[in-house]
Amino acid sequence: MLRPDLTCSQHEQEYIEALKESDRLQVFQPKVAEVWRLAFKTPPPSTPRTFVILLLTKETKPDPRGERAFINISIPFHHPDCVPKEGKEKSRVRGKYVSVERIQETEGGRSVEWRMATSSDAGGDIPQILTRVSLPSSIAEDVPCFLEWLAKRSI
């Protein structure tokens, strides 16, 4: 069963090993427009990263076959409760992340197609070219972890 709430930031910490903290900072509309703080542990010698995003989720109307789809959009967001280099963020570098995902049932709901376009800036001293080169493989590594996690949820 396709469920938009199973792809949101609150669950990512359960299947993305590097994600150490995920905090919902603000809810404009539950499961539709929420601000999240995502804190990642990074391999030495790099500094841990925090990404603050506005997560927008919209379920679309089912097509004539009854197949459902939804769209997730994540965009960088400045939030007053998560100021870079203050408090909990003092020892972290602020990165930026944007993505557009379309998740759609196919084959009468027996299969799911997940399309994603994304860009990221790790911030700090990590050259942008390294982020561009490593991002696709990093996302690809998360897919089997997500599918394993989803299978354990027995939905």
From TrEMBL:
Protein name: DUF3074 domain-containing protein
Domain DUF3074, chain residue ranges per copy: 8-150
Species classification: Eukaryota, Fungi, Dikarya, Basidiomycota, Agaricomycotina
InterPro entries the UniProt entry points to: DUF3074 (IPR024500), START-like_dom_sf (IPR023393)
UniProt feature coiled coil, ranges: none
SUPFAM superfamilies the UniProt entry points to: Bet v1-like (SSF55961)
